[in-house]
Amino acid sequence: MHGFGANRADPTTGLLGLARDLRDRDFGLLLFDMRSSGDSTGETNSAGFYERFDLLGALDYLTERGADRRRTGVLGHSMGGAVALMACSAPDTAAAVVADSSFADLWLMIRQAQKGAGRALILANPGMSAIARLVYGVEIGEVSPAKSLAMSESPVLIIHGAEDRIVPLAHAKLLAKAAGLDIGEPEQPTDNLWIVPGAGHLEAYRTARDEYVTRVTAFFDRHLVAGARLALPGREN
Description:
Layout: H1 15-24, H2 51-64, E1 73-77, H3 79-87, E2 96-100, H4 106-113, H5 125-136, H6 145-150, E3 156-161, H7 169-178, E4 193-196, H8 204-207, H9 209-223
Parallel strand pairs: 1-2, 2-3, 3-4
């Protein structure tokens, strides 16, 4: 799943290259554009609030074509990672989630953007919340992957660039804490948390391609239930 303002073929993230690498590891993939992105219709991006239903619809589509939810993992980037963490916190939605460069909480992102010259805009937060609710039907407080993770039992792998200036590293640490992970020393990667040295926002794959693919593949191999491969029309088993 792509990030804010991008699409399923996002060259900045390298989504098509990543898809190819995972396909070479025998994964079947579905890439799609969330609402108001790429080839999908819509005029408003809700920062993840409504995009959750786009992912749920995509998972339903796969299920209708014979996919087993126990063998289905979700890989999301930036806002796509936030969407994945929120949507897949419910039981039996997907077997495992990889969130790359996800934010932990939308209000935290807003407050961080209001630092310095934008600090005076903090006074507008109540009005901002009301406008989002009345005009767009968006509850900003509900866009919180960290809150979703705290109530989720789904296995997660959190990936974040150590030099991310768009979604600060603190968000990855909050997500890890919400998931009950032992953060320890961030520079020492674990099976569920990988802070990528030298990588900025959405640069983990392009910074450490081989390790990225190896880690994601190993994570999904651990948590997706083994069984018969999905048979799609026009494709051999």
